[in-house]
Design goal:
The protein has a three-stranded mixed beta sheet. The longest helix has 13 residues. The protein has four helices and three strands; from the N terminus they run H-E-E-H-H-E-H. By secondary structure, the chain is of the alpha+beta class.
Amino acid sequence: MSVQQEIEEILQKRFNPSFLKVTNDSHKHRGHAGDNGTGSSHFSALVVSDEFEGLNLVKRQQEVYKALGDYMKDIIHALALKTMTDLEYNKIKNAL
């Protein structure tokens, strides 16, 4: 299983998202700081879940980092996050 698939599985289990998109952006960072040469160090994710209801953006991201645990310490160098509730996503999804 790839790191991207593992991230998707963890986020799916923890947040039961109505929409989840994880993208491996590592190819954009070859040779830069944090590139560990594996091709699996830089990611972006859009997580849409009502688990984020009532949480500010910082707390939402902290919850994602917590769910990913050791991946954030040992494998993932960078993770660009967009975290939204279903209501927030439905308001802007056509603009994405």
